[in-house]
Each structure stands twice: as structure tokens, then as C-alpha cells.
Design a protein that fits this description.
Helix 2 packs parallel to helix 7 and helix 7 packs parallel to helix 8. The chain is elongated and about 105 Å long. The protein is of the alpha+beta class and 565 residues long. It is 31% helix and 27% strand. Strands 2-1-11-10-7-8 form a 6-stranded antiparallel sheet. It folds into 3 domains: 98 residues, Tumour Suppressor Smad4 (Sandwich); 202 residues, 2-Layer Sandwich (Beta-Lactamase); 233 residues, 4-Layer Sandwich (Phosphatase 2c, domain 1). The longest helix is centred in the middle third of the chain and has 47 residues.
């Protein structure tokens, strides 16, 4: 069954990043991983694979617990099955995990709400000034239609201000939004007659704003001469000779919630609509009802426009991330070829769109072959940027430079730029035709050496990661390889992979996997390792990048004969 195409959820990740997801099916399945057919996949091992579902029935939406052990909560209340309203917050019994804000379809809801509102208003056909009343009702309906517009946010908000001025007969209108500290700051200002005003020149009454926010309700004064004494004496009102002021706080959701302490608006503060005039504004009862309804619609328009803007930003970021992913994948060795004295196989699987792992294999100017694996701390774009920089720097070694000074320079460069805030473990090796392997281990897990059915870890000699401590001396160590020796280089995304019970894969399991295998094909070893990892994790989310590089020393017949002498 298909869900309403305008219904969506706002997903808030543990790092507080947000993205909007359409509820495009019913049931809309939520859980960890993709093996259960989840439409929304949450990367948290504490969330069940079959967690919850959003169901559409009879034009209403419901949340249903389908296996979340810690429970499903709506607005902090535990539930197994509950109807959802716009703005409801869904959580999973975890303080530091995902949250979901349900956004109900505005399509088909706004106009009936307006008709209900109009039905409760006085009979305009027997009321003096019927033409003016109907004109203002028309303005209200036009404002409601902005919910469905694709206009830029600035155009939508400017139109809302113009409608507010027309409804109230005010001289000026101002939209304020909270900054990072929560203080309201001017954003758009308009004057009567569709005149654009510079927002920085607008001095709203801070007393009226404070009163509206403290009361969490609108402040509407027809004549300041009869208003609260504190409002009459406000400096900005006196200095600007104001006679009428309207302040409407705008809250996400636009509804009210009755609690033991009284009625409160649901949702976060989106901003405030402020209007004033030097003329006494004669608001009729009909005008007041329209103004209150406009406040609800203005909040909905602002909330909806922000959601659309966030979705556009998310799409732009996703496009940029996809470009970064394509570039990063293009820089990895493709179609790994065998070199004169070694065979190679490798794979990189980032846990996000871009990752902090990479490997490389290249021939040096003097005929030797170099290979390496690196793991940058962290994940995502930051790690990917540093990964690309490392790859470019270390590829310079193909010209035959001494690797130890290169590592010292690279380490000091990163340490001098402490604002980067990342470091990398690296295993770098150069293989000579006679089997001599020179290597630098910069804090990376020792590769496994597969020799005659044994799997050992001989590359423990080394130093700390690059970018972690300044003035570190990196030294080249060496080992002699025998023909058919195979090196297994891996990132900790393999050994630190976990199963649903949080047990770790570990180096012992990897060593046991390769022990006893004599001369199998490298592609077979690679597929065996990945299959073992999948079987062990049993659908648990991948929390780190997975990189595996296999290198086998295969000298020519002449080189093998010379090595045996």
C-alpha cells in the first residue's frame, strides 16, 4: 500500500544532523540494516533489526512497535501502537540515538481547517464591511496555498509579511528568527504597499517581544493608550510614537498542547511575526480570528519552507559527497595487475559514502614495487580529505625517495596543523626482486604473513601514527620473503567488526581463518575473508571502513634459483 507522497519524517542522527525522508509506503519499516527490508535504516547496534513501522489507515498514520526491546516512545511516552500527529517526536528508549519527527501531509489538511475556521466565524453576509472580511479571508487562503509552493524561502516569507500587513492594516511587518543563542534576530522586513525595508533599520519593541515569548501567546494591542503600563512606557514604543503593536510567536507544529501547568504550544520556537503602526488599528472580531489563523499558517509555512530548504541542502551535500566518493574510488588501484615478482588483490568498503581507509600498489623508478595500507582516524568527509592528501604525498615515493625522511616530514606537517585534528596509521613496504621487504609500520596492525600454512604477525616493529606526535623518528625495518609468501594487510574495520551481541571479530579469528591454507588464489582468500566477516556479523551495522590487501611474492625462476643458493 502506498502512503501519501507529501508525508515525511525528519530523521535526527546522534550527531544532531538532520535529513528528511518521505514516507512512501505502508507499512514504512524502520530498523537496523537492510536485511529486514527496512525503508529507514538506522546505524545503531542497540536498535533492533525489526524495530518499528509507520502505518497508514483511513487517512491517519500510526506508529507500531515491531520488536524494539527498549520500547518505542512518542513525545516521551512509551507505546506499542499510537496515532501520529504532525510534530510528534519518536524515539527508541536511548538518550544518545536517533529521533524521528513525524511530518504529516499538509495536502488536504489546510483547506478543511480553513473551512472549519470560516464556519466558526460570524456570518459575513450580515456583517458590515463584508467585502473587507471576504478579502481578508481570501488573503488567508492564499497564505495557506504557500504551503504547497516551490518558491524560494525568501519569497515565501516576504509574501507572508505582505499578507500580515494587509490583514492587520499595519505600517510595518518584521519576521524574526532565533540565532544560535536563542535570541531573536530580524530577518525580513516589509512596509505597507509591498515595500521592502532593510531589517537592520527596524527597531521592534523588545518589551512586546519579551511579553509574547514569556506568555507563549500573541500580543495584540489595538491602542497602546489603553495597553499594559509596561508596554506603554517601553522606550522603542515611545520614541517611534507607535499606537498599535502585534507580536505573534511562531512554533513548529502550530498546535497547542494542554498540560497540568496550562496550555503550551507544541514544538520549538521558529521565530516571531512583529507588526506595528503609528495609527490606531481597529481590529474587529473577524480580524482577530483571521490574524490568529494566519499565525498558525505562518508557522506552518515557515516550518515547511525550512524543511524543504533542509532537504535541498541535504541533496546538495549528498551530491557533493557522491562526487567525493567517485573521486576517492577513482584514486584507488583499479584492475590490480600482477607485477613481475608479486601478485596482488585488494578491496575497500567504506562504511559511509566516503571513507578514511585506502591502499595503493605502485612500481618505483628503480624496478622495485611499493604497497601500503592506511587508516585515517574518524570517518566521513574529513577522513576522506586527509586520505586523499596522504595518497598524493606517499605516491611521490615512486620516484625513489627515501621513505623514512618522507614519513618524518609528513608527520611534522600534520602535527604543525593541529586544527586538522586527525592522524593516520600506515603500513608502507617496498619489495625487492630478491624478496627483501623493507617496511615502515606507523602504528598500523601488523599484517599477517602466510608461509607454508602458518599465519604469523612479524611486523610489530614500528612507530606511532603520522600526525599524532611531533618529531617522531621513523625507521625502515626489513624481512626476507620466501617464494609464495603471502602478506595480508587489513584495517581495523575487519578485526573490530562486531556481531549483534557486540562480540568482536578479532585478530585470532582472522589468523585462524588463513592458517593451514597453502597456495590458494588471492581472490579466493579475499572472498573467504569477506564471507567470514558477513557470517560473523549476522547483519550488524558496519561501524568502520573495511580494507583488505593481499600481496604474494612470486619471483621469476632465475630469482627463485638465486634466492635458494
Amino acid at each position: 500500500m502506498s502512503a501519501d507522497q507529501d508525508t515525511s519524517i525528519e530523521l535526527i542522527a546522534p550527531d544532531r544532523s538532520r535529513q528528511t525522508v518521505r514516507v512512501a509506503a505502508s507499512p514504512f519499516l524502520i530498523g537496523r540494516g537492510s536485511d529486514s527490508g527496512n525503508h529507514l535504516q538506522l546505524n545503531d547496534r542497540r536498535i533492533s533489526r525489526q524495530c518499528a513501522a509507520i502505518i497508514s489507515e483511513g487517512g491517519q498514520y500510526y506508529i507500531e512497535n515491531r520488536g524494539q526491546k527498549l520500547g518505542i516512545f512518542v513525545n516521551g511516552e512509551k507505546t506499542d501502537h499510537r496515532q501520529l500527529n504532525d510534530g510528534d517526536v519518536i524515539s527508541f528508549g536511548l538518550a544518545d540515538s536517533y529521533e524521528i519527527i513525524f511530518r504529516s501531509s499538509s495536502n488536504g489538511a489546510v483547506i478543511p481547517d480553513m473551512m472549519t475556521l470560516i464556519g466558526k466565524m460570524p456570518d459575513t453576509q450580515t456583517t458590515p464591511g463584508t467585502g473587507a472580511g471576504l478579502s481578508k479571508l481570501n488573503l488567508l487562503l492564499e497564505a495557506s496555498m504557500l504551503l504547497h509552493s516551490t518558491l524560494p524561502l525568501q519569497a515565501v516569507l516576504s509574501t507572508v509579511l505582505d499578507h500580515a500587513i494587509a490583514v492587520t492594516d499595519a505600517d510595518r511587518a518584521l519576521l524574526l528568527e532565533p540565532d544560535e543563542t536563542g535570541k531573536l534576530q530580524p530577518r525580513f522586513a516589509r512596509g505597507a504597499g509591498l515595500v521592502r525595508l532593510p531589517s537592520e533599520s527596524f527597531s521592534p519593541s523588545q518589551t512586546a517581544l519579551r511579553m509574547a515569548l514569556e506568555q507563549r501567546s500573541s500580543i495584540i494591542t489595538e491602542d497602546l493608550a489603553q495597553a499594559d503600563s509596561g508596554l506603554q512606557a517601553a522606550q522603542s514604543i515611545v520614541s517611534q510614537q507607535l499606537r498599535a503593536v502585534v507580536v505573534i510567536p511562531l512554533y513548529a507544529g502550530g498546535r497547542t498542547l494542554t498540560t497540568e501547568s496550562g496550555t503550551r504550544h507544541r514544538g520549538d520556537l521558529l521565530g516571531a511575526l512583529y507588526l506595528d503602526s503609528r495609527r490606531r488599528a481597529a481590529f474587529s472580531k473577524l480580524d482577530r480570528q483571521i490574524l490568529d489563523a494566519l499565525a498558525v499558517q505562518a508557522a506552518s509555512i515557515l516550518d515547511n519552507a525550512r524543511m524543504v530548504e533542509r532537504e535541498r541542502q541535504r541533496q546538495r551535500l549528498e551530491q557533493e559527497v557522491n562526487i567525493a566518493r567517485d573521486i576517492q574510488q577513482a584514486l584507488l588501484p583499479r584492475g590490480l595487475r600482477d607485477f613481475p615478482h608479486l601478485k596482488v588483490a585488494g578491496i575497500n568498503i567504506p562504511c559511509l559514502a566516503v571513507g578514511g581507509d585506502y591502499f595503493d600498489v605502485f612500481k618505483m623508478a628503480d624496478g622495485r614495487t611499493a604497497f601500503l595500507i592506511a587508516d585515517v582516524s574518524g570517518k566521513g568527509l574529513g577522513a576522506a580529505l586527509l586520505t586523499t592528501m596522504l595518497q598524493g604525498a606517499l605516491s611521490g615515493l615512486m620516484l625513489g625517495a627515501d621513505p623514512a625522511p618522507m614519513f618524518r616530514h609528513l608527520n611534522n606537517f600534520l602535527c604543525e596543523h593541529a586544527e586538522v585534528g586527525r592522524y593516520a596509521t600506515v603500513f608502507f613496504a617496498i619489495l625487492h626482486n630478491d624478496g627483501t621487504l623493507e617496511y615502515i609500520n606507523a602504528g598500523h596492525p601488523s599484517p599477517l604473513l602466510l608461509r607454508s600454512g602458518d599465519a604469523t604477525e612479524p611486523f610489530t616493529e614500528g612507530s606511532c601514527p603520522v600526525g599524532l606526535l611531533p618529531d617522531v623518528e621513523y625507521r625502515v625495518a626489513s624481512i626476507k620473503l620466501h617464494p609464495e609468501d603471502t602478506l595480508v594487510l587489513f584495517s581495523d574495520g575487519i578485526t573490530e567488526a562486531v556481531d549483534p551481541e557486540d562480540a568482536m571479530y578479532g585478530i585470532d579469528r582472522l589468523r585462524a581463518l588463513f592458517a593451514g591454507r597453502v597456495d590458494p588464489a588471492l581472490d579466493y582468500l579475499q572472498q573467504t575473508a569477506l564471507a567470514s566477516l558477513r557470517e560473523f556479523s549476522r547483519g550488524a551495522s558496519q561501524a568502520d571502513d573495511i580494507t583488505l590487501l593481499l600481496v604474494r611474492y612470486q619471483p621469476s625462476a632465475e630469482e627463485a634459483a638465486a634466492a635458494s643458493q
